[in-house]
Hints:
Shape: elongated
Distance between the termini: 155 Å
Strand content: 5-15%
Largest sheet: 7 strands, mixed
Number of strands: 17
Helix content: 55-70%
Mean pLDDT: 82
Amino acid sequence: MVFTMRTRRRIQIILYNILVVIVISTSTTLANDIVMIPKYEQDNFKEMELGARIAHEELNKKDDLTFGSLIPQRATSGKDQIRYVQDATNLNAQVIMLSNNAGRAIENYTKAAHDSGSFVVTYDSPLMGGKDAGEVVHVAPVDFAQTGLVLADMALSILGGGGDFVIMGSSPKSTNQVAWIMALKKAIKNDAKYSNIRLVAEEVYYPDEDNRAGYKNKTLEIAQLKINGTYPELSLIMVPSTSGAAAAAAALVDQGLCDIMKVSGLGFPPELLRASKRGCAPEFVLFDNLDLGYLAYHASHKLVTGQLEGKIGETVNAGRLGTRQIEADPHRENALWIKLGDFIKYDESNVERASFLECLKGFCGNEEDTEFFHSKFRGKYKSKALAIIPKVTGTISFLCSLLLASYILSSRKRRSSVFGRIMVGLSISDMCSSAMWFLSTWPMPTNSWLHWGTAGTTRTCSAQGFFLQLGLCTATCYQATLLLYYFLTIVKQSRESQIKKWEIFFHVVPCSAGLGTSIAGLVLKLYNPSSRGSVCWISEYPAYCSKSLSCDRGQNAIMYQWWFLYVFVCLTFIWLIVAMSTIFHKVRGVEKKARRFSHESGSSKDVAMQALLFTISYAIPWIWAPIKAGIDTADIIFTNPNADDAVIALSIVNVIIFPLQGFFNFLVYLRPRYGQVNTWVANIRVVVAVKNCFKMKKSSSEKQAGDVTSSFEGNQTDVEMK
Length: 722
């Protein structure tokens, strides 16, 4: 095909523009002040990045620094890390945060980065060359020497005081694992406590490929050594790698080998939950991934801002973690480190809860682990009651509000009154929210594993949240307006004609507040499945994600809950207290005057009682919601083991009572009518009684006359017979 000169020129321009877009997009990704390079994409490294982002959000309020991450592919992790270090250096990144997975091969590039002015801070896995490799400081999760003792203690415990085990690593280039394995061998060799456990193979078993399939294959090869009698006493595979431990445990579970072989080492709770429950992984340890990333970012930030020079004895103020000191690394020459803390040990007593909390943050492990996890917690947390009960209570409330509105609108007199129109507005608002309670979990996305009966999408969930917020906020404002009407009628003695002049505000304010907050919530993407509730409303997604600043939707949802609804509720309650106090004070004064002049005061007292009952009907549903909201927070759920049960119990009570707002209003509205009916029935009974009385008197007179006549006729008969 032959192109003209003009066509070729156009093609060149198009290709040039495409190239420019690619370069700009790549540069935008890399050109950050602080660049984080993990080993590869895995949940525990994602959580470290999450910790770094939390620290970034906290510290970025003062300093306008940018932060980004470059995640290598698992199969080419080492090569990718080298390339990313070069790219970050060329784009003048101020700090390169690195979890080394390339061994010594990357050290020339990190040294070049340091020489060009970038700070190199390692975390999780250090540079063996230390300062000679350009590393300023290493943020260590634990003391490597402690790691050896911890792994040896777990081996001793799992083997029952004696037996054989082997070690399986991920890669000889993983510097932290190499150090941990050396520490384990040293502990077993030098401490008589471990004399009855034996490392049967001095060499470390590494998978042929550094991936899940490679780990599984190598695990089955090791298990075969016991089965074929090569190592008949072999009962444990020690794996100082989270990805390796997860894959090894999965292989044993899938092949039904948990009775003859166990796995231990470093493990991520959601990834080992299934194996732990099947007996394959009775004990394992891990450090706090979130805190490791958090501490590493604090150290990096302080280097950039000049608060640290990277010298022994300097302290790092790491926010909620307190202070940490820079010390000489006892395991490497010419190297510094900052130690995070100690290992966290997991076993049957705490692995389930730890897995639940990690999964709430969005880290649920691999696909088979996630499915097991969801099935494990489905019975406990997927409560059918929370999905079914609001359908019943929501229906009752909707029908009562519909009947109330229809009753008022059916009469010209009732619908022409200010009170009647306020009640219609209140009823319509409640119908809006009650309909959403009836839908309950149906509009939620089908992947909402904390909820039962989901059948919707993000859009249907947003629609439900919009109308629920509209109904709740508008009804709250109408409740305040209703009490204002009583206040003007009783306290100010305002006439109906005077109140009608201001009636437009009685409707404009509630509707504006409801529509305004509802639309804002839609724009801000705040409507999501509630953490342990029955409807979509202003919520974080995933649940409790604001604890880690990783929300896909609904960031700062708790703050918006207060601004968009709870502030209106609190102001309404304050107004209820003030207004009702004033109303009863007024009624009491009227009663005193009435008693003084022997007049009746029943009318004012009845109106005040009606106002009080409307206040109580509003307060009853709102008692439970704030209590539940106060308990169902990340800080309490993540730290209090009994909080889950309390939240579920309060949630059930809440879905029973809260949707019944329209039902309570209906009962209160009918109360005076019930009294009128009783009076009417009593009057009818009086009339009937009087009428019966006259009938009885008439019958008595006729009977007496009949008796006289009979007597007279009898006497006459006697006379004739004689």
